[in-house]
Amino acid sequence: MTACSIEPLSSPAEIDDILAVEQASFTSPWTREMYVAELKNPSVSYFYLARTPEREVIGFCSFWHVLEELHINNLAVLPAHRRLHIGTDLLVRVLADGAKLGARRATLEVRRSNEPAQKLYEKFGFTVAGVRRQYYSNPAEDALVLWRDGLP
Ligand SMILES: CC(C)(COP(=O)(O)OP(=O)(O)OC[C@H]1O[C@@H](n2cnc3c(N)ncnc32)[C@H](O)[C@@H]1OP(=O)(O)O)[C@@H](O)C(=O)NCCC(=O)NCCS
What we know:
- The protein is of the alpha+beta class.
- The chain has helices spanning 15-25, 32-39, 86-101, 115-123; strands spanning 5-8, 45-51, 57-66, 69-77, 105-111, 127-136, 141-149.
- A 7-stranded mixed sheet has the order 1-2-3-4-5-7-6, with helices on both faces.
- Bound molecules: coenzyme A.
């Protein structure tokens, strides 16, 4: 298993690292402009990076914290590093730190066809609470809305 560290974003320059993981992972990746806008809202918008011992960024998770809720916006790991529990490490840290911020529940959307992510979230106690029809584009697809109560 790859030994990796999980750390909060420490500099705006690290957006480039996040974008590289985004582009390797999603058909409609968030853009630089979207991330720059998020950084202007540091009391709500959080980013955690997974790094190898050589400091290469191989995964990230971004979320919003609003009162008692966490909204996980993105979670991704570079393809060459998947199935090594890096996504798990990111989620463990994000849910724990979210709880320290005062969150009591977490939500996210996931493509209906994204079984790897759904299996991961299931392990963390997320359950399907609804469907957003045709929420995604490229390709068009429903989103399952998942919730997990009782953080951490
Ligand atoms: C979803 C994603 C972040 C998982 O990251 P990861 O580091 O590979 O996940 P982990 O190694 O922590 O997997 C934990 C568990 O999730 C499940 N899982 C993960 N990937 C899976 C796969 N391809 N097939 C089946 N189950 C899978 C397994 O139960 C796994 O435990 P196990 O390996 O002990 O069997 C990664 O596949 C990814 O970046 N996908 C593309 C981006 C994406 O879809 N993000 C989610 C958006 S909602």
